[in-house]
Amino acid sequence: MKMLSLLAVVIVLIIGWSWRTSSAHPPVAETKPVAITVVTLSEQALAETVPLQGTVFSRQAVEITPEVDGRISDIKIRSGQQVEQGDLLVQLDDRHQQAVLKREQAKLQDTIRHQGNIHRLLPKGAVTQSDVDKTDADVQIQQAEVELALAALEDRAIRAPFNGKVGLVDLSPGQLVSRETRLTTLDDATVLRLNVPVASKYLGRISTAQTVTLQQTHLNSDLVEAEITSIDSRVRGESLNVYLQLSIDNRDSKLTPGSLVTGRLKLTEQANVVLPVQSIAYEGHKRYAYRLIDDHVEKVEITLGIRDGDLAEVTSGLSAGEQVVHQGLVKVRDGMEVTVIARAGV
C-alpha cells in the first residue's frame, strides 16, 4: 500500500513538471512570407531641363561719338528714330575743311598740268628723265593731300555705321563737342544676343541649333524663341561653367536690349534605368531598393539621377529587367522571404 502511494506521488510530480515545462516553452509558430508587389525595371529617357537667366543685348550696338572736336552745325536725327547705314546723324561745322579741300584740289590740277608739260618736253630733250620722275611724284603727293583734306571733311559728317534705332538725342546746334562726347547711341535690335552659363557636365547634351523658350521676368510677358548659336571654347575655372550664346529674332520688337529674361533648356535625352519613387528606401543620405531574388529580397544601395514625376533615374545599383519591391516596402528586410501577389512594369 505504501508503494502504491509513493508511485502515485511520483506520477503527480512528473505530470506537474511536464506541464510547467510546456508552459515555459510554447510551440514556435511558423513565420509567413510577407506579401508584396514588384515592378520590372526598364530603361527610359527622362526629360531634364536646366534653368537659364540673363540680360539680352543687341547684335550691334555703339555709342556715337565724333572723330574730331568741333561745333555742331546741324542735327539730322531725333530720339528713337530708325536710321539706315550711311545716314547723316550730326553735322559739325566744316567750312574750314571745305576751303582746304578746294585749295588742295586746285593745287592738284596745277600739278597735273605741269606734269603734262614736262612729259611733252622730254622727247625734245628739253628736260631730263629725272624732271619727269619728279613731276610724277609731285602729282602723287598732291593726290594724297586731296585725300587727306577730303577725309578731314568727312570726319565732320557723323553717319550711322549700320541700320538701327537711335537712342536719346540731347544736342543743340552750336554746341561744342569733343572726341569724348557721346552724341547718342545706336542699336540694331532686330536680332538680340544672350550669354548664359550652364554647368560644364551638360556639354555632351547640348548642341548648337537647339531652341529655348524665353520670357521676360515681369508677369504676362510674351514668350520668345531663342536658338543656341555658339558654345564657348573654354570652361570657366572657378565655377566649372561654360557659356552659351543664344540668338533671338526680335524683328517684332518684343524685347528691348537690356531686358532680363529666364527660360529652361531641355537637354538631349539619354536612356537610363528608372524606378518608381515609391520603391526607394531612405536611410540618412543613402538610398536603397529591395531586389527580388527567387522568393527572397535583397537590399541594394542605389545612386539616383534626375527625377521626373513619379519616376527616378538610377545611375548605379540596378539593371534593366530586374524586379524590385513596389508595395510592401515598409514590411520587408534584407534577406526576408516574400510572396509576390502582383507584378507590373515601369
TrEMBL record:
Gene3D superfamilies: 2.40.30.170, 2.40.420.20, 2.40.50.100, Helix hairpin bin. Residues 273-340 form the YknX-like C-terminal permuted SH3-like domain. GO terms for molecular function: efflux transmembrane transporter activity. It comes from the Bacteria. GO terms for cellular component: efflux pump complex. Residues 61-180 form the Multidrug resistance protein MdtA-like barrel-sandwich hybrid domain. InterPro entries: Beta-barrel_RND_2, MdtA-like_BSH, RND_pump_MFP, YknX-like_C. Residues 194-266 form the CusB-like beta-barrel domain. It holds the Pfam family YknX_C. Belongs to the membrane fusion protein (MFP) (TC 8.A.1) family. This is Efflux RND transporter periplasmic adaptor subunit. It comes from Corallincola holothuriorum. The lineage of its organism: Bacteria, Pseudomonadati, Pseudomonadota, Gammaproteobacteria, Alteromonadales.
